[in-house]
Amino acid sequence: QVQLVQSGAEVKKPGASVKISCKASGYLFSSYAMHWVRQAPGQRLECVGWINAANGNTKYSQKFQDRVTIAKDSSARTVYMELSGLRYEDTSIYYCARVVASRGRSYFDYWGQGTLVTVSS
Amino acid sequence: DIEMTQSPSSLSASVGDRVTIACRASQNITNYLNWYQQKPGTAPKVLIYVASTLQGGVPSRFSGSGSGTDFTLTISSLQLEDFATYFCQQTYSPPPWTFGQGTKVEIK
């Protein structure tokens, strides 16, 4: 069955960087794009960016453009998201989510369990 | 960015009630609208995609309707396991996509 397993919780100081991993199993890795979505406490879900797992092309939300890098290791079936210059307001749960995109439909069908990133001095 | 606005932000209902949640887009998104359910401490789960298509395994008491800018999620007869937060998401524009702020369904 499809599974997305993320790395564990992180506590970082302001200005630091964090790198989160998302290991996929149960499907052909290169066939589905992977998105990163975050959720601050009590806030709406917010898309950070995504990667085409076939060719490695990435696209980032303008809000995070200067601070985020999404990459993949196909041999390890793993996608990574690194966020630099952390601020207190980056404290959130970060999810990876697989996207179904075909025949006029696009939606997230599988999600990782979430990784809590806490920015604290 | 396309803004998504849900109403209400929260509601209280009883088991067996019919519940309706609205989602409005800031511009025409045709039918590129998805609904997710999220329970505390868990990731969201897709219920409905392209406005009205039920994801496999989702109970038929859930339904979606609408097109253009106005959409609705309806739960025909609320069950205990339906108490959760519901989000709409537009996928009309190129990603990254945007979500509504969520509607929390609580027990009356």
Notable features of this structure?
heterodimer; A: 121 residues; mainly beta; 4-stranded antiparallel beta sheet; 54% strand; B: 108 residues; 7-stranded mixed beta sheet; 49% strand
Compact description:
The complex is a heterodimer of chains A (about 120) and B (about 110). Chain A has about 120 residues and is mainly beta.
**Which percent band covers the strand fraction of chain B?**
over 45%
Our count of helices of chain A gives 0
Q: Give the termini separation of chain A.
A: 40 Å
Number of strands of chain A: 11
Oligomer: heterodimer
Provide the structure class of chain A.
mainly beta
Radius of gyration of chain A: 14 Å
Number of helical segments with 4 or more residues of chain B: 0
- Rg of chain B: 13 Å
Please mark out the parts of chain A with pLDDT under 50 across 5 or more consecutive residues, or reply none: none
Shape of chain B: globular
Q: Could you say which structural class the secondary elements and strand pairing of chain B correspond to?
A: mainly beta
How does this structure look, described?
The complex is a heterodimer of chains A (121) and B (108). Chain A is an all-beta fold. Chain A is built from no helices and eleven strands. Chain A has strands spanning 3-6, 10-12, 18-25, 34-39, 46-51, 58-60, 68-73, 78-83, 92-102, 105-111, 115-119. Chain A is globular. In chain B, strands 2, 4, 5, 6, 9, 10 and 11 form a seven-stranded mixed sheet that branches. Chain B is globular. The chains are: A mainly beta (121), B mainly beta (108).
